[in-house]
Specification:
single chain; 309 residues; alpha/beta; TIM Barrel; 2 domains; eight-stranded parallel β-sheet; 14% strand; globular; binds flavin mononucleotide
Length: 309
């Protein structure tokens, strides 16, 4: 797959996942074969204003990531034009714009999926990005807001200069209900001449094969299927699986290079729950991890446990 001038070696990518796509998780998934790894959505305004600390802590990267993608959300073209030139964005290979987030506090600010209902503004945002960076600019969209307008929207984004579209096959109204409509993603793939990444409900190698076959998309993005399961990328790409315990400990070590112990402890609890999911004895481990008083205690729990072997 080629995105603008950027050659991508592989066709399966890790999604932006707020609260989970931290620097450690992105590195581990990249090592298992994710060809592109996205930061969680970061506020373009947050980069502009002084109180950017919260935004900046989402934007750490390591060279384990093969293609580093930053995802921005914004409703005002001015802030996008500023953000794509911000020094902290320089290390990223591509810039993705969130046009799919369904959360009410984002939508009410005309950000995320609200843009699906405002094609002129969505186009201005893409143009503002394109006019101010030479990096590829991509859009992550849903099928529509209340009803489907994916083909019309996708064509408009292409016209505005987007270099690739990622399509999550649900409307905003559907939130996460039902199944991703892969047939609707296929219509977008047919309509545009830029590459498309298909997204929604890929939880296994078989799903990867099925979504590719049914959509004809150039790539596949995985979010929930990768949580607690970075080996989904090795299973798709033919790399070797790694033991969960190794990946968890390395995930923590990478986070530690960038964040203080308290931050890592608090943030890794969510990952613990995912890594434990479905494993025998997971309730007890999860409980102990949640009750642990600091990061070292959590690390000891992981090391001592045989649940992940
Ligand atoms: C907890 C959570 C956080 C998410 N955060 C983001 C985000 O920051 N940006 C974004 O574009 N999509 C976000 N998404 C949507 C996912 O990237 C993806 O489009 C969606 O989950 C469907 O893919 P899946 O079936 O593989 O999970 C999030 C999803 C979840 C479950």
């Amino acid at each position: 797959m080629k995105i603008g001038n950027l050659q991508i070696n592989g066709d399966v990518v890790l999604a932006p996942i707020a609260g989970y796509s931290d620097v450690g998780f992105r590195a581990i998934c990249a090592k298992q074969g994710a060809a592109i790894t996205y930061t969680e959505m970061a506020s373009a305004k947050g980069l502009y204003y002084d109180k950017a600390a919260k935004t900046l802590e989402l934007l750490n990267t390591t060279d384990d990531e093969k293609i580093k993608a930053v995802q921005l959300f914004e409703s005002e073209p001015f802030f996008i034009s500023y953000a794509v030139k911000a020094p902290v964005i320089e290390k990223f290979d591509l810039i993705d714009i969130n046009m799919g987030c369904p959360v009410p506090k984002i939508v009410k600010n005309n950000e995320g999926s609200a843009l699906l209902n405002n094609i002129p503004l969505a186009k201005d945002i893409v143009k503002a990005a394109k006019d101010n960076t030479s990096k590829p600019v991509t859009v992550k969209m849903r099928l529509g807001f209340d009803t489907i307008n994916a083909v019309e929207f996708a064509l408009a984004m292409q016209e505005a200069g987007a270099d690739l579209l990622t399509v999550h096959g649900r409307t905003r109204k559907e939130m996460y209900m039902g199944h991703s409509h892969w047939d609707e993603i296929a219509k977008v793939v047919k309509a545009v001449n830029i590459p498309v990444i298909a997204n929604g409900d890929v939880e296994s190698y078989q799903d990867y094969l099925d979504i590719k076959a049914q959509t004809g998309a150039d790539g596949v993005m995985i979010a929930r299927g990768a949580l607690g399961n970075p080996n989904i990328f090795s299973q798709i790409t033919g790399k070797e699986d790694r033991p969960l315990k190794d990946m968890m400990l390395e995930h923590i070590e990478i986070m530690r290079q960038f964040h203080n112990e308290h931050y890592v402890h608090a943030n890794f609890k969510k990952h613990m729950a995912c890594y434990c999911k479905g494993k025998r004895g997971n309730k007890e481990i999860k409980q102990r991890a949640f009750e642990s008083k600091d990061l070292q205690e959590m690390i000891n729990i992981i090391k001592e446990s045989d649940i992940y072997d």
